[in-house]
């Protein structure tokens, strides 16, 4: 059992998964204000100067700047404003030897064309992103806030930027045998692993309904990967996973680990890694050789929290090669709402190592009695994804 150490000072770092301006997000306000601000500065400086200034060439940058933020109509309007400013005698910006009016007009017309092309391209990319996000969410849909007597919160950060699904997966489902959960990591990461993730989650959801116990579920997932590997030459697909099955009142949980880090039990301010006898990873074709027992049974008390994570968390290292001390940090981060624990852990991991190069998945399960206030709204979700 690990007792919470003294709180360490950690400087917050920017989340590298947040979609910025250069990755498809709308331009910031200062970029949109640049064309108008530049025109205002040139006009004010010219009017206040006692002698003519040769700064009219700066106005030629306004139409290209407008291309970054505006559509063709606004770009054409700003280009027209530039031409008018160069023609106003009070500014004296188009005297011989200063700005070439014909050149600026050509740049303005070219900027309108570029703005039209950019606007069409952005619309196509937005449509493609919307379709891709819908397809990826169909593979790994958001978790409900509660499944039966178990409160759920998940966090998913794919290693490949711009994607919602990678080589990790998790799900929580309710079936005839009770509430069952899975978290796993398949070979590889990024979009290349999505098909394997989809196959495993499909097998898990089916097994929840018709498999009597966790060993039978493990056999079904293992067989799925063996069959898929046989259909692709030199595929050799495999995955690690943890499967859990809660009792009807969530007073106990049965756990099976297949080469994956075991769950961590948070109880009374301490973090303990549950001692589970590991089974072989999925996809090796050894399901018939699995141990005859039904997995490890852990008794749960009110207030207990189960924390599960992929190796993207447990194997995250800083520049010195030091692994992220998950067991030491968890008690310090779990003193508030468990639903936000995964977000706090991710921020702490980023503070430790700066960047994460592997898929990051966390699953927080809080057993307890059913909440009658939430039965009327079963679709509320608690899953955090990459923006």
Write structural notes for this entry.
This protein is α+β, with helices and mostly antiparallel strands. The chain has 2 domains: 21-135, no CATH class; 143-384, 4-Layer Sandwich (Phosphatase 2c, domain 1). 36% of the residues lie in helices and 18% in strands. It has helices at residues 29-48, 62-67, 72-87, 101-139, 194-210, 214-231, 311-314, 326-333, 341-353; strands spanning 146-147, 150-157, 168-175, 178-186, 239-246, 252-258, 264-267, 270-273, 296-299, 305-309, 360-367, 383-384. Strands 1, 2, 7, 8, 10, 11 and 12 form a 7-stranded mixed sheet that branches. The longest helix has 39 residues, at 101-139. The radius of gyration is 29 Å and the shape is elongated. It starts with 28 loop residues before the first helix and ends with a strand.
What is the compact description of this entry?
The protein contains nine helices and twelve strands.
List keywords for this structure.
387 residues; alpha+beta; Phosphatase 2c, domain 1; 2 domains; 7-stranded mixed sheet; 5-stranded antiparallel sheet; 9 helices; 12 strands; elongated
Helix and strand topology:
Blueprint: H1 29-48, H2 62-67, H3 72-87, H4 101-139, E1 146-147, E2 150-157, E3 168-175, E4 178-186, H5 194-210, H6 214-231, E5 239-246, E6 252-258, E7 264-267, E8 270-273, E9 296-299, E10 305-309, H7 311-314, H8 326-333, H9 341-353, E11 360-367, E12 383-384
Parallel strand pairs: 2-12
Antiparallel strand pairs: 1-2, 2-11, 3-4, 4-5, 5-6, 6-9, 7-8, 7-10, 10-11
């Amino acid at each position: 059992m690990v007792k919470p150490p003294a709180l360490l000072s950690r400087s917050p770092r920017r989340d590298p998964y947040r979609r910025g301006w250069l990755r498809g997000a709308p331009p910031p306000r200062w970029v949109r204000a640049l064309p108008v601000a530049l025109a205002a500065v040139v006009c004010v400086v010219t009017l206040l100067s006692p002698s003519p200034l040769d700064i009219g060439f700066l106005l030629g940058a306004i139409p290209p700047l407008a291309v970054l933020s505006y559509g063709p109509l606004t770009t054409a309007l700003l280009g027209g404003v530039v031409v008018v400013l160069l023609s106003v005698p009070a500014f004296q910006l188009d005297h011989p030897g200063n700005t070439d009016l014909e050149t600026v007009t050509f740049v303005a017309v070219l900027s309108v064309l570029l703005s039209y092309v950019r606007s069409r391209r952005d619309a196509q990319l937005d449509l493609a992103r919307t379709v891709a996000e819908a397809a990826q969410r169909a593979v790994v849909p958001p978790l409900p806030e509660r499944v039966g007597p178990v409160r759920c919160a998940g966090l998913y950060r794919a290693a490949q930027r711009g994607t919602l699904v990678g080589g990790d997966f998790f799900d929580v489902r309710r079936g005839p045998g009770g509430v069952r959960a899975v978290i796993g990591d398949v070979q590889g990461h990024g979009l290349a692993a999505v098909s394997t993730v989809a196959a495993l989650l499909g097998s898990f959801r089916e097994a929840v309904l018709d498999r009597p116990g966790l060993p039978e579920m493990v056999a079904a997932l293992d067989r799925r990967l063996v069959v898929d590997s046989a259909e692709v030459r030199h595929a050799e697909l495999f995955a690690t996973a943890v499967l859990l099955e809660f009792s009807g009142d969530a007073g106990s949980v049965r756990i099976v680990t297949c080469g994956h880090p075991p769950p961590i039990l948070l109880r009374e301010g301490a973090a303990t890694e549950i001692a589970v006898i590991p089974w072989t990873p999925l996809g090796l074709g050894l399901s018939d050789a699995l141990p005859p027992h039904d997995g490890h049974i852990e008794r749960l008390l009110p207030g207990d929290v189960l924390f599960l994570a992929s190796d993207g968390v447990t194997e995250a290292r800083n520049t010195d090669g030091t692994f992220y001390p998950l067991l030491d940090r968890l008690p310090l981060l779990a003193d508030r709402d468990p639903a936000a624990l995964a977000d706090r852990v991710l921020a702490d991991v980023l503070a430790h190592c700066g960047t994460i190069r592997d898929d990051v998945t966390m699953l927080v399960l809080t057993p307890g009695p059913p909440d009658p206030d939430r039965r009327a709204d079963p679709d509320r979700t608690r899953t955090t994804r990459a923006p």
